[in-house]
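Exercise 7. Predict the joint structure of the components listed below.
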Amino acid sequence: MGFKSDIEIAQECTMAPVTEIAAKAGIEEKYLEQYGKYKAKIDYNLLKESDKKDGKLVLVTAINPTPAGEGKTTTTVGLADGLQKIGKNVMVALREPSLGPVFGVKGGAAGGGYAQVVPMEDINLHFTGDFHAIGAANNLLAAMLDNHIYQGNALNIDPRRITWRRCVDMNDRQLRFVVDGLGGRTNGMPREDGYDITVASEIMAVLCLASDITDLKARLSRVIVGYTYDQKPVTAGDLNAQGAMTALLKDALKPNLVQTLEHVPAIVHGGPFANIAHGCNSVIATKMAMKLGDYAITEAGFGADLGAEKFLDIKCRMAGLRPSAVVVVATVRALKHHGGVAKADLNNENLEALEKGLPNLLQHVDNMKNVYKLPCVVAINAFPTDTKAELDLVEAKCRELGVNVALSEVWAKGGEGGVKLAEEVVRLCEEPNDFSFSYELDGSIEEKLDTIVKRVYHGKGVVLTAAAKKQAKQLEELGYGDCPICMAKTQYSFSDDQKLLGAPKDFEVTVRNLKISAGAGFIVALTGEIMTMPGLPKVPAAEKIDVDESGKITGLF
Amino acid sequence: MGFKSDIEIAQECTMAPVTEIAAKAGIEEKYLEQYGKYKAKIDYNLLKESDKKDGKLVLVTAINPTPAGEGKTTTTVGLADGLQKIGKNVMVALREPSLGPVFGVKGGAAGGGYAQVVPMEDINLHFTGDFHAIGAANNLLAAMLDNHIYQGNALNIDPRRITWRRCVDMNDRQLRFVVDGLGGRTNGMPREDGYDITVASEIMAVLCLASDITDLKARLSRVIVGYTYDQKPVTAGDLNAQGAMTALLKDALKPNLVQTLEHVPAIVHGGPFANIAHGCNSVIATKMAMKLGDYAITEAGFGADLGAEKFLDIKCRMAGLRPSAVVVVATVRALKHHGGVAKADLNNENLEALEKGLPNLLQHVDNMKNVYKLPCVVAINAFPTDTKAELDLVEAKCRELGVNVALSEVWAKGGEGGVKLAEEVVRLCEEPNDFSFSYELDGSIEEKLDTIVKRVYHGKGVVLTAAAKKQAKQLEELGYGDCPICMAKTQYSFSDDQKLLGAPKDFEVTVRNLKISAGAGFIVALTGEIMTMPGLPKVPAAEKIDVDESGKITGLF
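Solution:
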């Protein structure tokens, strides 16, 4: 039996005009800016001017994933559809996809099966132009920086210490390491340079953490682009770039409204990397979803050790958000993977391995309940290859240990398949909670890192290389000691070793590099090499994408 | 006395909702895709499905300009406003501005004074995202090309003969000459590379010449990206890139609807360079303006020797367009400049120099009437510094020589200042015309070049360097001999020497380089170095741009 592809399912959907979706969400016409018939931007002034009480915020996160991903976005969308099925006023808030994966390996990123946001082609291709605007702001800053050096370098910037890279929303390995400014005196100043994919630009993180346009401009002006010959930081504000950058971003700051296949209003806005940045949709999008819905369902990148940790410790802290419940997505496949099953065998029933993989899930649940003190439910995201015995086992084991659990069949059945999970989420949202952060901001950088490793990862503690120790000291001297930490670590393990599956113990996490993202307002702790510019595979997905004469797109997954 | 800045005038305008503008233009709702409240895209299917008779096409061009420009866009907009004043159903079709000049020296490009298109901030900043889409398509092709080489180079592409460059919509001299693919085996293949500004990308020319989405894809697939080790051309089609590129461009192909300050429907779409490309708005935009209006007013870049020549010989020929009249814009300042007055003295009355500069204008008018056989009128674009004696002299001299002439005061007075010109244009459009091209396609490349130099520039003939002669032979062997020619020449003179002002005689034009733009379908003839990536000035305009907390932009000119 063949399954329909995501794009086939998406294109079969009769979408409601975005004006209807807006009306359903209670957005007055004056706050709506249509982008075509099925997309719109929402004026952020609605946030200030509405007197509706904020809805409940629900975070969807996951166990440590396999490389295939565990369906967080699908579950997030399906949970929202399920809440609608049981009569709730719900909004979903997701990240925007990058063009890189669309043309590379992964394909689109707007949910899957019968739990998607639409129009999926548009959402995956340019959408409302936010990422291009971010790229333009990033590259304007780069051009102004190099122009400053070319025009006499009044700020005394050391071309060898420039940290600002150009960006493009594309998988283009050829641009990772370049030398630019070649061609002689009139063509710039030769220096080493390189490109990141746009989602890895600090501007993306800045946009996603900004509370309004004034905060956006202030953050942009604090962005560090490099250091002087005497090692002082140089900022975008020093180059007078923040005004023009804000002008480029003024529309990108407005959250985008679309819909799920079942016409639940969906906000899709922002998409920072989940390693060197915090991996969540924008603060404004999340607040807008809470302002409009009685339930706002959102997600965070990677597993809960990275995604939920940063969502809670960085985003919620900076934005003053208080979640009501957490959903931890698990799949039978990923649990078997954590139980030691090889990739080729993941589709075969294996109850023993499944049980052996459970501690990974349980430790994430434990973190949510006992570190962050939030009500939590496990959503088992059903795959067609799962057997009934496997699904029953996970459910039984969770119940045995007092863990809330619900089977989610949203990929195959849409909202109907999310009703059980929705009912559980509604119940949890009524529970009182004592939301806490995993660490406080007032310790030293090393202390904060150590707390994350011990409390969230359950390791022995952090180890800083000599270089990282020196960087920590410098950052504290520069006044950045009180910033939250943004961990850049493998998403496949609680540890910094992607091969340590399950719930490893007795490991140390080594931080090799500490960098300040002064605009975003966090310190990035790198535990290894992080790829900020992906490459295309041997046969890029782009080769299969086509458009017919009516403009209908095929080959997008 | 101070004048209001363009942005101040633009922001004082109470715009009509774009739905009202669309209704006024006779665009049914099903063809309209709103982008915010004051911008929209028009579905190109309207072109096929409407049964309205096409309106008259009027081209606005100019004498050889001074570096300040002679106000073609301003006159184009004001003429449309003037036609509305006298009760005509009119549409205007313009090019989209690039972000490069906005942040560099020139500022915005949406008309000036009381003859502008609005919302000017949006039109100048991202607009509906077309240029970013073009950049993404351009850079996807580049990434697929380098990835092909990295993954084994089955097509045998010579990395030293790659002609495809990356692009960004920014003035960034640092990127003119780069070496990329550095960093070792996993990071690409080191080679020389470089960036153009997006408007100089062949994709821009392709989009602007495409008649529909099928033609767009066919043109993209013909784009040449480089040559093999045995010197065979390699195309985007060879890389299977045309489908994904078309998918990226499917919305960019739809023309954008905005309005003039006086609420005349305006289409602003596409903006190819006027040197290495043909410098006009898109074919689809022009056809749409003719389909909707009884009069469609459009413009072409630079002076008439370049802009009108390419508009008529390339765009009208490819698209089967037939203009009804031509407006040649002249200013008192530019005429004095052609009469030998130095820049510093251009604001002082000088009747003698003015008369001495007239032959430049008259030769352009003569070309329109006697080469292209089109009715023609001179529009004197009045500046605040012009004296009455000067304005009177130009008008009297034109009349004396039987040249139609009208004073245009649209910069200061809007449509009211364009009524005289509008009346003259209406009259000319009723005249029969015998529109002809300046050259036919069936001669050799050198013959066509020679014809342009003799008939349009009034020089002695063309000279090809040895390299250009060899290139002409190669292009003819490859089957490109029948393509029209796209001249890349200084815009300041009829000749290839920017210092030869007025109507020079006895000069030869030297073509140094011939390149095929196989997707656009023309041969670019370069007469000197053409800068395809501008730089920022000492104090970029970007430093003065700002946004307040309500999102209102200041400092954009």
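Discussion. The mean pLDDT of chain A is 95.
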